[in-house]
Amino acid sequence: MSFEYPQDLRYLDSHEYVRVDGEIATIGITSFAIDQLGDIVFLELSDISEVITKGDSFGSIESVKAVEDLKSPITGTVVERNEALINNPEQVAEDPYGEGWFLKVRINDPDEANEDTLTADEYSGQVEGM
């Protein structure tokens, strides 16, 4: 099966992605992660104004197969969360890199998104062997 990994994103080996646009970062999970999880039934996300820290959990995603912690690829303050997904978590599978985002975060250090993250090609190479 072939998955899409947009070139403008950075990826964690735990399958989260980050898209940086100025001082705002958008965080979500990859199509590969969604495929591995199966049907998603519940999503818990950090609240607006909450500070999240790179490497720490900002919520969890639950499927019929498993519950997984969501790890933050950056440090910053949550400015928006995708309420539509909280109410209908299965929708993340329809457009993970567009309407399926989880959080928008005002980042402390824009360069942090490139530290300890993978390019699309690096991430693709890593998950293709799984």
From TrEMBL:
The keyword Cell wall biogenesis/degradation does not apply. Its cofactor is (R)-lipoate. The modification N6-lipoyllysine is found at residue 65. Pfam families: GCV_H. Residues 24-106 form the Lipoyl-binding domain. Belongs to the GcvH family. The glycine cleavage system is composed of four proteins: P, T, L and H. This is Glycine cleavage system H protein. It comes from Aphanizomenon flos-aquae FACHB-1249.
